[in-house]
Amino acid sequence: MADLTGIIRKKPDHLERTVDEPRERTLHQVVIREIDQINSAIRLFRLEILGPNGIKFLPGQWLDVYVPGVPQAGGFTITSPPSRAVGLSFIEFSTYEKILSDDESSPTRYNFHKTEAQKPPFLHLELAVQKSPLNPPAAWLWLPKNKILNKIIQVQVGGSFTFPPFPLNNSSKPLDKVILIAGGVGVNPLMSMLSSIAEKNFPLLQVHFLYSVREDLPPPTTTTTTTTTTTTTTKEILFLDRIAGLFGGYGDSGGYGGYDENGTIGYDGKKVGGGAKVTGQFNLFLTQPQPQPHHHQRTPSPEEAKARRRPHDYPTYHRRISKQDVASALGPDKDTSAVYICGPPSMTDSFVELLTSSEESGGFGMGVDRVLFEKWW
């Protein structure tokens, strides 16, 4: 039988796709400290950084991840903000008693709670890893939890899809609005960016977040194209609660963005009030998966549906993100806005073309330096 290895093209791996991207030279050692199961296809990892100096990165960057026994690197985007990898978060929880103010009303008082949403801080990087049996690094990270917890792996920071948008550094026009458009696990880099924006507390910066994700449950029969203000699936949607919490919704920001669930103090020790942590609007778009031939999809029982739905106060649509949705978010501010897009290649390409095409051809006529994108594969 002929050897077809050099004839049949294979899908490029992470290192091949990112060969021209900037990356650090340093390999860092981290420990798999926590693993949370978000749903049947996504795990959330917190990787404790060894040593007191932390790891510096920019919101939106990814990691080359080297796991034991796998020669090739996997590429996984950092979902936590840079503050979690440097600064005060390396102090052990027990030492906070030594720096607490006796005055409960003091603006410098730290208010940590040992809850699931507000765990003791430690220097870490957070990754959301999708189940992918054909991707060796991802497959290793999906081994049984007891086989990989507390294992040491190596990581290297890279990527140019970052906030703030460096192409605008020399621009004479300010940045007044940021529009984040995510499809599926393309939310990962945008989550890091949003958390970082919340921590920095830019009161004049408007943020509009359009998040499209597949819905497992059938949509309500009362609407297919209009806003739903009563129920939506939430439990298994990656980062939905965290995003909603940062926009002041019912969701819990999980201690990210510099805040805990009570609007008091986050890991960085900033004193803030309750309510929204970023100014702007969050819209959720729930799309139906394509039906599989000869595949019967079981309808969930009312009890199952109720357990996976709850009230919310952000607009939710049971359709794809449309041109009008982007136009509404952008408004008349195209010259002072930056748009970040991350999702499947077809989605990303279509929105980049829409935003950068001339107005005469039906586009928005934005400068290419104000439209930043990354595709997930």
Structure notes:
It is a single chain. With 377 residues, this protein is of the alpha/beta class. It has 2 domains: 14-86 and 123-158, Beta Barrel (Elongation Factor Tu (Ef-tu), domain 3), CATH 2.40.30; 166-375, Rossmann fold. The protein contains 8 helices and 14 strands. Strands 4-3-6-1-2-5 form a 6-stranded antiparallel sheet. It is globular. It starts with 13 loop residues before the first helix and ends with a strand. Residues 88-120, 217-232, 258-274 and 292-311 have low confidence and may be disordered. InterPro entries: FAD-bd_FR_type (IPR017927), FNR_nucleotide-bd (IPR039261), Oxidoreductase_NAD-binding (IPR052128), Riboflavin_synthase-like_b-brl (IPR017938). GO terms for molecular function: oxidoreductase activity.
